[in-house]
Specification:
Blueprint: H1 2-7, E1 13-18, H2 26-39, E2 43-48, H3 52-62, E3 68-72, H4 76-80, H5 82-91, E4 96-98, H6 101-106, E5 110-114, H7 116-131, E6 147-152, H8 153-158, H9 165-170, E7 173-175
Helix pairs in contact: 3-5
């Protein structure tokens, strides 16, 4: 929410898009998203979608008034349809933020989330230790170490946005 508001200061409402079949945990996070939206003076729209028709209709509805944006929850349905989301969001002039880098690479404005390759290396280390005889229960629980901010400047320009230099300076990758 912070990054989207920083990149798009005139944003007024954001739709949290997710598929309840592939991300059934999302409703439990709604109070957190609502509090974050209120903290930035935004309205949060709960936007569950079950198929591409609902997805396109939700994006069109969000884009029917100025000041809209999209937050994409991490779920397999949205990842599979990321190109459709990017094209539809661009058509309706909606800035979009997601957790997974592939969304920004597909044309969404921003992605900010765990840097996947470091997680895979950590998983490989765990597998190695287990194969050498370590008991999984004895291994420490580890959280993500590195987060990755990707900004798609092509999308920003297409949306008529001037991304603040301070935000660009923090980006791990800028797609031009």
């Amino acid at each position: 929410m912070d990054l989207l508001k920083e990149a798009v200061p005139n944003i007024k409402r954001v739709a949290l898009i997710y598929n309840p079949q592939t991300a059934p945990y999302t409703p439990s996070f709604l109070p957190i998203f609502e509090a974050a939206a209120r903290g930035h003076g935004l309205t949060l729209v709960n936007a569950p979608v079950r198929d591409t028709g609902e997805l396109e209709a939700t994006i069109a509805t969000q884009g029917s008034e100025p000041g809209g944006g999209l937050i994409l929850q991490t779920d397999s349905f949205l990842v599979v349809h990321r190109d459709l989301i990017a094209v539809s969001a661009a058509r309706h002039r909606l800035p979009t933020i997601a957790v997974v880098r592939v969304f920004a690479a597909s044309g969404c404005l921003i992605s900010y989330g765990v840097e996947a390759s470091s997680m895979y290396r950590g998983a490989a280390t765990y597998v190695d230790r287990i194969l050498r005889g370590a008991k999984p229960v004895d291994l420490p629980v580890q959280g993500p170490i590195k987060y990755e901010l990707v900004i798609n400047l092509k999308t920003a320009k297409a949306l008529g946005l001037e991304v603040p230099p301070t935000l660009l300076a923090r980006a791990d990758e800028v797609i031009e």
